[in-house]
Design a protein that fits this description.
The protein is about 40% helix and about 20% strand. With about 70 residues, it is an alpha+beta fold.
Length: about 70
């Protein structure tokens, strides 16, 4: 059975998630590329999955760092 981009993205975010629940988006991108997921600009790719992925940008860092988090059912 073929794995979908959605499933691979969820795995990548889960694999890169730190103890605070957030995954560095750059690290997620490395995992996606290693699994041959073609996405162009990662931030735009992530927007296609806004129902399962929450994002934030830490502007206190230079350069700013983007993070992703799986949205869990409440």
């Amino acid at each position: 059975m073929e794995t979908t981009d959605r499933e691979v993205l969820m795995e990548a975010v889960a694999d890169c998630t730190k103890s605070d629940g957030w995954a560095n988006l750059a690290e997620v991108g490395v995992v996606l590329r290693s699994k041959n997921i073609k996405y162009g600009k990662l931030s735009k790719f992530i927007l296609n999955f806004s129902d399962i992925i929450e994002t934030k940008i830490d502007t206190t860092r230079e350069p700013p760092v983007a993070y992703a988090k799986l949205i869990t059912e409440k």
